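Page 37, continued from 36.
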């Protein structure tokens, strides 16, 4: 059975899930938007683990399109999975990197045994990706990964911050069905 894909309008940091995905930047040391909100609500344990990752395997930071898990601190989750979305470009097609964020995050989620995973709309904030295109890429990448790599994940939840984003994801889901 493939996992179900669900939509919620709300704040990612308030979600209960086995894993919450962070739209991080490659420094892993915090930022604005989702990143800042997750660190604020999750407390210092997340940043401590990010610093350890930077001191170890990710000395140069987390490359765009990849994902790595840490503790979720005080969040209502077991793990935060940090992924770095591409900055949107009008001249270069970076869609494969955005799709990779979803695929790699789901791989990490499977590796830590997560059954429920909540995603924000990666790259659609400070990184400037148009919501309709980002939604289409996100929905397709998640569906494809779930179909090709069955694992423990039972629910993938997109958590959209406002009504417009929610409706755009609703349309993308309907178009993919
Ligand atoms: P990026 O740098 O990848 O663009 P941002 O965090 O700036 O990431 O924004 C990604 C998306 O998440 C945007 O659509 C933004 O409106 C939304 N967002 C910001 N804060 C939250 C939150 N607390 N919960 C869910 N979505 C959020």
């Amino acid at each position: 059975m493939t996992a179900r894909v669900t939509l919620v309008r709300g704040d990612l940091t308030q979600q209960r899930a086995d894993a919450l995905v962070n739209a991080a930047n490659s420094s892993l040391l915090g930022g604005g938007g989702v990143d800042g909100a997750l660190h604020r609500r999750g407390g210092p344990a997340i940043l401590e683990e990010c610093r350890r990752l930077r001191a170890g395997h990710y000395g140069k930071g987390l490359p765009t399109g990849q994902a790595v898990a840490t503790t979720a601190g005080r969040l209502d989750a077991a793990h935060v999975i940090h992924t770095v979305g591409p900055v949107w470009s009008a001249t270069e097609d970076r869609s494969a990197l955005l799709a990779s964020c979803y695929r790699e995050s789901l791989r990490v989620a499977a590796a830590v045994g997560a059954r429920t995973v909540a995603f924000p709309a990666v790259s659609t904030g400070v990184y400037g990706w148009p919501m309709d295109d980002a939604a289409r890429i996100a929905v397709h990448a998640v569906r494809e990964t779930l179909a090709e790599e069955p694992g423990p994940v039972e629910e993938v939840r997109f958590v959209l911050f406002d009504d417009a984003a929610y409706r755009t994801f609703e349309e993308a889901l309907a178009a993919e069905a």
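The chain has a mean pLDDT of 97. Flag for discussion at group meeting. Residues 11-13, 23, 32-35, 37, 85, 120-127, 159, 161, 165 surround adenosine-5'-diphosphate (CB under 6 Å).
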